[in-house]
């Protein structure tokens, strides 16, 4: 296994920007994940549901944020990841991914970092998350 | 009116973690780590095959029926939103894994809304086990049905 990443309380992960997201990005995720709810690809259906265009499925932004985290820590070191959905994401949105180490605990075997994470559009989070990751402290 | 559904099995899925799907899902979620696409990178990381992206079990959606789930839970689709999802990992998923996921209702409660009416919070948990019966990943999702009179 790869060694865990070194981390300390207060560390910020390197910010990443994704987008502008396109309808193609949403369709690609629909095919990958198997979410064929018309809200995510049918403009008329989305309009009737009160949205200007089809919206991204929450699992798209949840997966983007998780993948950005595992790019940093290594997927084999990820222990827990929890997302909360705050707002709909539409084509054209640019997401900024950010995260911070808020605590580190030792359990005798290894160190675990607690992180808070967000995918934001401007200053508004569309997804917030917390995660537990094995690190070297 | 409706009773608590805690304990009800809402669906079951079985699938293999396939290399093509792992690459597709990693690309769809903008993941960059080559362990998800390159067998050599996975081997250098200490694994015998390519590793799946963290939320890969979402691909179970290909086998699930949203309409049937909603009917089973007795909720109105247009009033339901997913509030949160949590994954707990025992180990990373690898190409070649064969997983079975049983999804159960583990929480079902009503809360009074701030502006009258009430909402129902339903928590579903899927435990994904491998062929040896070991738990690989557990996914817990909370559905919120708003505006119940």
What does this protein look like?
The complex is a heterodimer of chains A (about 140) and B (about 150). Chain A is an alpha+beta fold and about 140 residues long. Chain A has a single domain, classed as Thiol Ester Dehydrase, Chain A. Chain A is about 25% helix and about 35% strand. Chain A has three helices and five strands. Chain A has a five-stranded antiparallel beta sheet with strand order 1-3-4-5-2, with helices on one face. In chain A, β4 and β5 (about 125-135) form a beta hairpin. Chain A is elongated, with a radius of gyration of 17 Å. Chain A starts with 15 loop residues before the first strand and ends with a strand. The mean pLDDT of chain A is about 95. By secondary structure, chain B is an alpha+beta fold. Chain B has a domain at about 10-15 and about 60-149: Thiol Ester Dehydrase, Chain A (Roll), CATH 3.10.129.10. Chain B is built from three helices and five strands. Chain B has helices spanning about 20-30, 40-45, 65-75; strands spanning about 10-15, 80-90, 100-110, 120-130, 135-149. Chain B has a five-stranded antiparallel beta sheet with strand order 1-3-4-5-2, covered by helices on one side. The radius of gyration of chain B is 18 Å and the shape is elongated. Classes of the chains: A alpha+beta (about 140), B alpha+beta (about 150). The interface of A and B includes residues 58 and 76 of A. β2 (about 80-85) of chain A pairs antiparallel with β2 of chain B.
């Amino acid at each position: 296994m790869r060694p865990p990443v070194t981390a300390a309380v207060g560390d910020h992960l390197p910010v990443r920007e994704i987008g502008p997201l396109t309808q193609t990005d949403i369709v690609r995720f629909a095919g990958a994940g198997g979410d064929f709810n018309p809200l995510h690809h049918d403009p008329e259906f989305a309009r009737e549901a009160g949205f200007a265009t089809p919206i991204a499925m929450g699992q798209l932004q949840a997966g983007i944020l998780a993948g950005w985290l595992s790019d940093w820590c290594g997927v084999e070191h990820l222990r827990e990841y929890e997302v909360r959905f705050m707002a709909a994401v539409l084509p054209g949105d640019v997401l900024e991914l950010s995260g911070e180490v808020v605590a580190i605990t030792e359990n005798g075997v290894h160190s675990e970092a607690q992180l808070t994470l967000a995918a934001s559009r401007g200053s508004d989070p569309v997804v917030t998350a917390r995660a537990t990751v094995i690190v070297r402290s | 009116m409706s009773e608590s559904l805690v304990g009800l099995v809402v669906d079951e899925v079985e699938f293999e973690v396939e290399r093509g799907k792992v690459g597709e899902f990693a690309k769809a979620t903008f993941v960059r780590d080559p362990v998800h696409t390159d067998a050599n990178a996975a081997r250098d990381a200490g694994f015998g095959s390519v590793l799946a992206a963290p939320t890969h079990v979402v691909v179970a959606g290909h086998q699930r029926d949203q309409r049937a789930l909603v009917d089973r839970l007795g909720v109105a689709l247009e009033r339901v939103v997913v509030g949160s999802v949590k994954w707990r990992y025992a180990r990373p998923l690898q190409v070649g894994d064969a997983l079975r996921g049983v999804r159960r209702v583990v929480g079902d409660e009503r809360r009074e809304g701030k502006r009258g009416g009430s909402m129902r919070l339903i928590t579903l948990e899927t435990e994904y086990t491998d062929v040896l019966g070991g738990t690989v990943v557990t996914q817990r999702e909370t559905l919120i049905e708003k505006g119940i009179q």
